[in-house]
Amino acid sequence: MATQSSSQGSRSSTKSRGRRRTCFCGERPVLRTSSTAENSGRRFWGCVNFQIGDGCDYFAWAEPEGQDPQIQRLKNKASSLKEELQKAERKFVLAVGVGILGWTMAGLLLCDRLN
User: Fold this and answer.
1) Is residue 23 part of a domain?
2) Nearest in space to 29 (alpha carbons), one of 38, 14, 37, 19
3) What digits encode the pLDDT tens for the residues 58-104?
4) Which of 33, 61, 76, 107 is the most buried (most CB within 10 A)?
């Protein structure tokens, strides 16, 4: 599926949340995925009649370049997981410290009882 040039997206001046509710022929745009080498995998909104012959050539990128929502979600998840890991590492260090202190105290008490 070939994509249209991004200049055609400028025809969509009436937008709601970054895209029109209807394309130029009155239909609801459909979310498609580009298969061109330049924009491979990038999502865009296009006329439901695209490549059928009656399409109005409506085109708009689904998200600004470099701001794929899935990438942002994954970055947020990675950040959250790093924070959780740091908390777990602090708890582990504290538990090891308490364990060492406990075994040291038990060893001292045992030595004291044996003497």
Assistant:
1) yes
2) 19
3) 888 887 666 666 777 888 899 999 999 999 999 999 999 999 999 99
4) 61
